[in-house]
């Protein structure tokens, strides 16, 4: 009896073939959407204005005057302030890598997209360079005197933040870099780091992918051979043919020798990473100074960072308290242990004993800025859909676009950057304790950045704003009721207050226990059930217009649990607040992280399923409220409760 056809299908090979095929089609489609610089205008047409532009190039790259003028004309016509020029003979693998990272069709409009380019030539408006603080005489990622492609890649990534919706790509037909060779391991690792990508992880993934294809080709017959063959021919299928916009000089060789070249690149990159860790770009002097400062502070212990334990609930005054979770610092692995207690009457959850202001400074340091600033920025930069949903929540309830909006706890202004695309006629200001709010102002993500504690601005900003937002902010504050008082003070009558918070009543909080990410110790001071917040808003003259649970869900329950558990088992061996790492400790940390990779993959799949369920059942791990200030008596700031 002949077996059904589907029983002869090698499903691993078929799925790999489908994934490679989809990637090939996507890359070919993206390539077609990259604009090509037209011929430069002639004197009859009127030459473009070249003043006010700087052309930054890598070592050995020369751009002719005609291409420069064509680039200026294209940028002016398209409203661009930063334009990366792709050489027409861009190396095949470099082109494929860029097409994997960038969708040119939405790149300009995506205000949170990271700046990506080929690393050879970038046209930049001088005013963008000035706002970004780029020194035209300096070299490296903070300067315009770049000499290597990695320097230009790092600079472009920074410049995109200052030209969030006016950065683009274009192919320059007359720009040539000749037949390039694969970059050495150190250079390739530097280029990956410059783009915010971990070279060690990517080298490991490349080894795994090549091993998979070799196994499929050797053991799964024609299906495996088809998958391996598609990978082998992918450079030509994407970049070959007379209709392509790029003409890589190495296309034939890159296609014929692709497996060998890929293996060689992975080996060289892995060797470079072993010689130089992924954080090699950090300043050794800064690391040494940071380590010395932490050791000096920790010599006095961490008990001084905690206030005396309180015996009553800060929300309702009840004395019926019990410990909900007790955990160490799983975010950074700093010393200390923290308890969240819950009130049996109102179910408010709060840190007890609470951190002192000095304690908050200690545990926040190097998380959102400093050592951890880039990682935090990357996480926030991937929440564009959530930011848009928050901004859109106001639309059914506002007759006109709000004229003024204050985002409290704005960080570096990521929400405001995205919300400007939803409400283009609204003035967005931001307020935060950290230095990031000043950077948000320089980037143009907020009009004005206020640095300090929100209650300090109650009188200065009284009645000024039509909308105040507090997205994942209240849970960080020492006294959330005073924060609500301040919001009522700075809003104009009829103004809107938007709040988003973790939901301590989430099922995942009970299921995952101390590994539930939104406990976020030791940063989160208070977690309020929605009913408590609704009551507090009513006491201050607010009417709740909308409440969302499923749409506010953040799909990180299982992934976050794996991350926290991994940190608990294998904290960063190079953290400056810990004793010097030993070779054995480093090896153990790397082994645990490698073993956790399948767990992360499984957790991501579970989170996708959990998110789909949360959206349908309105039972997420967070909630949003939108309230209108209707007037009525308001408690005085600082009033005893």
UniProtKB/TrEMBL annotation:
Keyword Membrane in record: no
Q: Name one GO biological process term.
A: methylation
Q: Which GO terms describe its molecular function?
A: methyltransferase activity
* Listed SUPFAM superfamilies: S-adenosyl-L-methionine-dependent methyltransferases
Regions that span the bilayer: none
**Sorted alphabetically, which Pfam families does this protein's record hold?**
Methyltransf_23 (PF13489)
Could you tell me which Gene3D superfamilies the record lists for this protein?
A: Vaccinia Virus protein VP39
Tell me what this protein is called: Methyltransferase type 12
Q: Which UniProt keywords apply?
A: Methyltransferase, Transferase
């Amino acid at each position: 009896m002949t077996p059904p056809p589907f029983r002869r299908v090698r499903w691993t090979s078929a799925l790999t073939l489908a994934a490679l095929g989809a990637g090939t089609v996507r890359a070919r489609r993206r390539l077609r959407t990259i604009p090509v610089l037209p011929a430069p205008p002639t004197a009859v047409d009127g030459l473009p204005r070249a003043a006010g532009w700087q052309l930054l190039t890598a070592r050995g790259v020369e751009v002719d005057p005609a291409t420069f003028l064509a680039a200026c004309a294209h940028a002016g016509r398209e409203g661009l302030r930063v334009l990366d020029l792709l050489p027409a003979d861009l190396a095949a693998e470099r082109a494929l890598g860029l097409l994997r990272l960038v969708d040119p069709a939405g790149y300009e409009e995506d205000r949170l997209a990271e700046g990506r380019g080929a690393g050879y030539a970038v046209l930049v408006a001088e005013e963008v360079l000035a706002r970004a603080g780029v020194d035209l005489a300096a070299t490296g990622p903070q300067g315009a005197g770049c000499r290597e492609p990695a320097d230009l890649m790092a600079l472009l990534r920074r410049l995109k933040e200052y030209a969030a919706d006016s950065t683009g790509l274009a192919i320059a037909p007359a720009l040539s870099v000749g037949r390039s060779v694969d970059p050495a391991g150190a250079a390739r690792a530097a280029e990956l780091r410059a783009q915010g990508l971990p070279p060690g992880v990517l080298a490991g993934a490349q080894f795994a992918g090549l091993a998979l294809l070799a196994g499929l080709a050797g053991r799964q017959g024609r299906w495996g051979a088809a998958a391996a063959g598609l990978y082998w021919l992918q450079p030509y299928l994407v970049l070959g043919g007379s209709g392509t916009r790029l003409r890589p000089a190495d296309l034939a060789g890159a296609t014929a020798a692709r497996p060998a070249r890929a293996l060689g690149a992975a080996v060289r990159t892995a060797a470079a990473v072993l010689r130089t860790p992924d954080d090699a770009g950090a300043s050794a002097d800064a690391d040494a100074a940071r380590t010395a400062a932490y050791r000096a502070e920790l010599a006095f212990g961490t008990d001084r960072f905690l206030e005396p334990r309180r015996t009553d609930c800060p929300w309702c005054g009840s004395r019926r308290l019990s410990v909900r979770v007790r955990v160490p610092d799983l975010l950074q692995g700093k010393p200390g242990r923290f308890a969240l207690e819950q009130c049996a009457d109102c179910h408010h959850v709060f840190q007890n004993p609470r951190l002192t202001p000095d304690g908050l400074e200690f545990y926040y340091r190097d998380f959102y800025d400093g050592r951890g600033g880039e990682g935090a920025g990357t996480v926030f930069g991937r929440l564009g859909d959530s930011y848009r949903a928050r901004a859109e929540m106001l639309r059914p309830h506002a007759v006109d676009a709000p004229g003024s909006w204050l985002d409290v706890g704005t960080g570096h202004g990521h929400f405001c950057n995205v919300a400007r695309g939803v409400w283009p006629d609204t003035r967005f200001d931001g307020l935060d304790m950290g230095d990031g709010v000043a950077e948000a102002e320089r980037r143009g993500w907020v009009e004005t950045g206020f640095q300090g504690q929100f209650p300090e601005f109650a009188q200065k900003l009284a009645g000024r704003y039509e909308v105040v937002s507090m997205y994942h902010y209240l849970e960080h504050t020492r006294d959330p009721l005073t924060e609500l008082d301040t919001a009522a003070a700075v809003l104009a009558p009829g103004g809107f207050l938007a709040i988003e918070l973790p939901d301590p009543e989430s099922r995942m909080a009970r299921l995952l226990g101390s590994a539930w990410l939104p406990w976020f110790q030791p940063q989160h001071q208070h977690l309020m059930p929605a009913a408590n917040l609704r009551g507090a808003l009513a006491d201050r003259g607010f009417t709740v217009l909308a409440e969302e649970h499923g749409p506010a869900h953040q799909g990180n329950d299982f992934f976050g649990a794996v991350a926290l558990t991994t940190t608990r088992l294998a904290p960063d061996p190079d953290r400056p607040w810990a004793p010097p790492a030993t070779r054995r400790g480093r090896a153990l940390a790397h082994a645990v992280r490698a073993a956790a990779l399948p767990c992360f993959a499984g957790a991501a799949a579970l989170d996708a399923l959990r998110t789909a369920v949360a959206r349908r059942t309105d039972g997420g791990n967070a909630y949003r409220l939108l309230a209108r200030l209707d007037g009525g008596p308001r408690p005085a700031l600082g009033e005893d409760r």
